[in-house]
Design brief:
- This protein is α+β, with helices and mostly antiparallel strands and 566 residues long.
- It has two domains: 190 residues, D-Maltodextrin-Binding Protein, domain 2 (3-Layer(aba) Sandwich), CATH 3.40.190.10; 228 residues, Dipeptide-binding Protein, Domain 3 (Dipeptide-binding Protein, domain 3).
- The chain contains 14 helices and 18 strands.
- Helix 7 runs antiparallel to helix 9, helix 12 runs antiparallel to helix 13 and helix 13 runs antiparallel to helix 14.
- The longest helix is centred in the last third of the chain and has 18 residues.
- The protein is globular and about 75 Å long.
- The relative contact order is 0.20.
- The N terminus is likely disordered.
Length: 566
């Protein structure tokens, strides 16, 4: 289920070093002998039911329409052009809400699906060509220079081609598209360079907003507007620290939004957002868990939710080109000494957590849109400190590894936050308890990007995972033998083959099987994983209903179904 992307911003803005293409990569260890597997044949066509039309959800029986929802986000957007920034504050929580996409992500009962948004239907005419028919009832918002006119296929083509412009920050999403052109007023054709299992996910990404040429032509870009889209919300006031959006009465959606207005304020500090909540300056906020616990002690009518992201958190990687990590038994023993992070809880209460390894807190960092494609907790329990008798098993493994007395490990940890430092120190203590000497070296995020992510200069590294929201892009960059971020030196030819095959597999069932196989092989290598997945905590007053902030691909369509009671 969760490709995630990027999805929620963290409680505080964490500096993230984005590494360039690697200039040096440690020599790989001999690949393990893979077990024989059947080689699936790529399915050249998407099953017709793969991208369903959205179902018309019945409104709640006790629905009260109208009202203003006031909430706060950690950081604001740099400007108002959705194609010229990767900022989630713009795409997901700011003026991006005024725009639509060809497709969108819908999450129900923790299961996510890509469905039509501006499109009415689609047809795959050959393995590389998609014919997409647009809805004929879509109008631009009644603001100049569009003034409520109907959306045309030519305008969709213009917008997607603009997003794909070489050098634009979101162009990689559409880089596999070779050609987009209109066929009449309400139909477009998309041709791909090669089969792409994620093409609809990319078109549903929150950055794939459809903008109008007429609006862009006014100033040459949309950095200062005008913001005129076809989405459910109309941006009326846009400032550096606040955005106000009102309901689009002409929106083509079935009876949504339920609210009259959104007021979004920028409050960088989690504690300030929590104070805003307690004083009812705002109705809901993304905050730290400590703020949630404190508020719940004082206010019974405050509710909260924690959403775990299996693609983000505290990542650990071992350099398999260096001793003693070059020994499989040593790496397995190290994993056994690192217990998984636990999701915090309030005594007497249960968190409404996402289903992805919520109780375990371990993952392989893959941004997956389908929860059925994630390894089960039992797979991780077998190989981590959550396994009963882990210390004894680790000692047994180390006894077979013939460690040298001179072996000394440096754990490089990036300054991404205290939880990373704490994990490094706990790790060193755990290794010491089984006779492996380890020292912790703290480095800035800039040094971490240069020395660790790019050059692979580490024994063990602890830091933030690469900022990639695509399953295929992540696998090619991090786990393929030729990947620029595959600095652990570990390789498995069968993993490479499966990565290449799943990227072209249109059948969801077959692709899911490949992805599970890939994860099992990566886990068996005991060289790279997320030891503590990141949880985003929200709290809100009990008069806020149906707030379900699942933000796959940055999608915040759920805001159209939030409602308030007096």
């Amino acid at each position: 289920m969760f490709l995630a992307l990027l999805q929620c911003t963290s409680e505080e803005s964490i500096p993230t070093a984005v590494p360039p293409t690697a200039t040096s990569t440690p020599a790989p260890t001999p690949a393990p002998t893979p077990k024989a597997t059947s080689r699936p044949t790529a399915t050249p066509f998407i099953p017709p039911t793969a991208i369903p039309s959205p179902t018309v959800a019945l409104p709640p029986e006790d629905l009260e329409r109208g009202g203003v929802l006031r909430f706060a986000i950690p950081e604001g957007s740099p400007h108002s052009d959705p194609h010229l920034t990767v900022s989630p504050a713009l795409a997901s929580w700011g003026v991006g809400l005024a725009y639509s996409r060809l497709f969108k992500v819908v999450t129900e009962a923790r299961s996510s699906t890509v469905v039509c948004d501006l499109c009415q239907s689609w047809e795959q005419t050959d393995p590389l060509t998609f014919k997409i028919k647009l809805r004929e009832d879509v109008k631009w918002q009644n603001l100049p220079p569009l003034n409520g006119r109907s959306l045309s296929a030519q305008e969709v083509v213009y917008s997607l081609n603009r997003q794909a412009t070489t050098g634009y920050p979101n162009s990689a999403l559409l880089s596999n598209i070779s050609e987009i052109y209109a066929v009449g007023e309400y139909e477009i054709l998309i041709r791909l360079e090669s089969p792409d299992a994620e093409i609809f996910e990319k078109l549903a990404d929150s950055h794939s907003r459809i903008v109008a040429r007429a609006a862009v032509d006014i100033a040459g870009d949309l950095r200062r507007g005008p913001t005129v889209g076809t989405g459910p919300w109309i941006a009326t006031d846009v400032y550096a620290d606040a955005t106000r959006l009102i309901i689009n009465e002409d929106y083509y959606g079935d009876g949504v939004p339920y609210l009259d207005m959104l007021e979004i304020q920028v409050m960088p500090s989690s504690s300030v957002r929590a104070v805003g909540m307690r004083t009812k300056i705002i109705d809901l906020a993304q905050v730290s868990f400590e703020d949630v616990a404190s508020a719940r002690e004082r206010f019974e009518d405050i509710r909260w939710i924690g959403i775990e992201n299996p693609a983000a958190g505290v990542e650990i990687a071992m350099n398999t080109a260096r001793s003693p990590m070059d020994k499989q038994a040593v790496r397995e023993a190290m994993m056994l000494m690192w217990p998984a992070g636990k999701s915090p809880s309030i005594p007497g209460e249960s968190s409404i957590l996402d289903t992805f390894n919520a109780k375990l807190g371990i993952s392989l960092g893959l941004p997956l849109i389908n929860h059925d494609w994630l390894l089960s907790n039992s797979k991780y329990i077998q190989r981590t400190g959550t396994n009963e008798g882990a210390t004894e098993r680790a000692n047994t493994l180390l006894a077979t590894a013939a460690l040298k007395p001179t072996d000394n490990i440096i754990i490089k940890v990036g300054e991404f936050g205290q939880e990373y430092i704490d994990q490094a120190n706990a790790m060193a203590e755990g290794l010491e308890s089984v006779g492996i000497r380890a020292e912790v070296e703290r480095v800035s995020t800039r040094v971490f990007g240069d020395e660790v992510w790019t050059a692979g200069d580490y024994d063990i590294m602890i830091g933030s995972g690469p900022p990639i929201s695509s399953t295929t892009a992540y696998l090619f960059a991090v786990h393929h033998s030729d990947g620029p971020w595959n600095t652990t030196g570990y390789s498995d030819p069968e993993v490479d083959r499966l990565i290449e095959a799943q990227a072209k597999e249109y059948d969801s069932g077959k692709r899911g099987e490949m992805l599970l196989d890939i994860q099992e092989r990566i886990l068996a290598g005991s060289h790279r994983f997320i030891a503590s997945t990141r949880t985003t905590h929200w709290m809100f007053w009990d008069y806020v209903h149906d707030f379900e902030p699942f933000t796959l691909r940055g999608d915040t369509d759920f805001l159209t179904r939030v409602w308030l009671t007096n």
